[in-house]
From TrEMBL:
InterPro entries: Ald_DH/histidinol_DH (IPR016161), Ald_DH_C (IPR016163), Ald_DH_CS_CYS (IPR016160), Ald_DH_CS_GLU (IPR029510), Ald_DH_N (IPR016162), Aldehyde_DH_dom (IPR015590). PROSITE patterns: ALDEHYDE_DEHYDR_CYS (PS00070), ALDEHYDE_DEHYDR_GLU (PS00687). It comes from Rhizobium hainanense. This is aldehyde dehydrogenase (NAD(+)). SUPFAM superfamilies: ALDH-like. The active site is at E244. Keywords: Metal-binding, NADP, Oxidation, Oxidoreductase, Potassium. It catalyses: an aldehyde + NAD(+) + H2O = a carboxylate + NADH + 2 H(+). It is an enzyme of class 1 (oxidoreductase).
Length: 471
């Protein structure tokens, strides 16, 4: 059993001052595989002090120096691809398709930001003013468990590009993955204090960072409830805040869609990361004229999806991250039936043949209206709702009738038509016909899906402040 008994401060692995610990589990077997010793407020103070000390030099670094750091970080992470894959599979249980994206994405985040940096102008002339984009100050990143490597690396990459230093609080549930990625980042040889990583509970370490007087910028990915608490705590010192929060994404099938192609893509969007994704397309909006056909195709397709241990490359849906998350998803499957929705696939309990592990049967509800809680609340598991619509206007009304607005999906055989629909959806991103991820495009949400943007120039500028000198 692993014991994670260090945090990372000022370029060294050190024992935390905190005395609390948390168990670590393999979600596919429910077996405890480790324990992590957690930091506390004093550890946060030490980490912030290190970042603050390193900030003046880092803020004056050249673009070439920052690009070199990003390249070194990429190389160090890429060098341990196999180890990172194994750790994510054991501690998180994600299917091979998701891990196969996540690990290269983590390393690639540094190169993507280096590419952004190459052409970015930190100084520009506007009339008779010289405008300089300066690092906002010491930053904090608070990251979730559903893509541990990716969130740590993408937020750190942006901080490095901006010329700022950072303290990172990852999820305590991902400590084995965190230990490994920290070893990679350490091997890159960055100056001491440029990045610091403190394991800890959100209500302890996360809260301390959110209110710390020497933190100027917070980048958070997680639930909307936690995002509100961070924003409230940060408001006392007017910290700059980027929040990437929950979602209840519409997955719109237009009536001209070629279902042989579209149905697998719709399910891929809905069951992304075993359903544990803020961008999952969990509301399938289907035209009434083709509802029966779409139901039949969905039922047939779901029946072919393999659920199980991620060591099997044929598995498409892995376990929920914890017993608590499994219980939450089960409660929503019960709720959907109580609300009057009809199960057309899946249901409560584990899939047949799996008597251990936090596995959920991939579930599809029909007869759903957009006022039901299963259609309005983020479930964060492999549970989809099919909602019928009459025409385009009705589909858009349903799509936008949500407190969220992170990502949406549109499927049509007519791309121009799909784009016309996309332009009317209130979401930070709209994906047409399963288009691939674009790392230079902004990512973030409308409404209660967050504020601010990540990736590319938009993400970089969220860590910068403009200063104008008039002459």
């Amino acid at each position: 059993m692993r014991s994670i008994d260090t945090i990372y401060i000022n370029g060294s692995f050190v024992r935390p001052h905190g005395t609390e610990s948390a168990p670590l589990f393999n979600p596919a077997t429910e077996e405890q595989i480790g324990i992590v010793h957690l930091g506390d407020e004093l550890d946060v103070d030490n980490a912030v002090r290190a970042a603050k000390t390193a900030f003046p030099t880092m803020s004056q670094s050249s673009k070439a120096e920052r690009i070199a750091m990003l390249q070194s970080l990429h190389d160090a992470v890429a060098a341990r691809t196999a180890d990172l894959t194994d750790a994510m599979r054991e501690e998180y249980g994600a299917p091979a398709s998701f891990i196969g994206f996540s690990v290269p994405h983590a390393a690639g985040a540094f190169l993507n930001m280096a590419k952004t940096l190459e052409t970015y102008e930190f100084r520009r002339r506007i009339g008779h003013a010289e405008v300089e984009m300066r690092p906002a100050g010491v930053a904090a990143a608070i990251t979730p468990w559903n893509s541990n490597y990716g969130f740590i690396c993408s937020k750190l990459a942006t901080a490095i590009a901006a010329g700022t230093t950072m303290v990172i609080k990852p999820s305590e549930m991902s400590a084995i993955q965190t230990q490994l990625i920290t070893e990679c980042l350490h091997a890159a040889g960055l100056p001491n204090g440029v990045f610091n990583i403190v394991n800890g509970y959100g209500h302890v370490v996360g809260a301390a960072l959110s209110s710390h007087r020497d933190i100027a910028k917070i980048s958070f990915t997680g639930s909307t409830v936690t995002g509100r608490a961070i924003l409230q705590a940060a408001s006392a010192t007017l910290k700059r805040v980027t929040l990437e929060l929950g979602g209840k994404s519409p997955n719109i099938i237009l009536d001209d869609a070629e279902l042989d192609t579209v149905i697998p893509q719709v399910l891929a969007a809905g069951f992304a990361n075993s359903g544990q994704a803020c961008i999952a397309g969990t509301r399938i909006l289907a035209p009434e004229s083709r509802l029966a056909e779409i139901h039949d195709r969905l039922i047939q397709a779901v029946a072919t999806l393999k659920v199980g241990d991620a060591r099997d490359p044929a598995v498409r849906i892995g376990p929920m991250v914890s017993q608590k998350q499994w219980d939450r998803v089960q409660s929503y499957i019960r709720l959907g039936q109580e609300e009057g929705a009809r199960l057309v696939g899946g249901g409560e309990g584990r899939p047949e043949g799996l008597d251990r592990g936090w596995f959920v049967r991939p579930t599809i509800f029909s007869g759903v209206n957009n006022d039901m809680r299963i259609a309005r609340e983020e479930i964060f598991g492999p549970v989809l709702c099919v909602i019928p619509y009459r025409d385009e206007a009705h589909a858009l009304e349903i799509a936008n009738d949500t407190v969220y607005g992170l990502q949406a999906y549109v499927f049509s055989s007519d791309v121009a038509r799909a784009k016309r629909i996309a332009e009317q959806i209130d979401a930070g991103r709209v994906v047409i016909n399963g288009a691939p991820h674009e790392p230079q495009a902004p990512f973030g949400g409308f409404k209660q899906s967050g504020m601010g943007r990540e990736f590319g120039v938009f993400g970089l500028e969220s860590f910068l402040e403009p200063r104008a000198v008039l002459s």
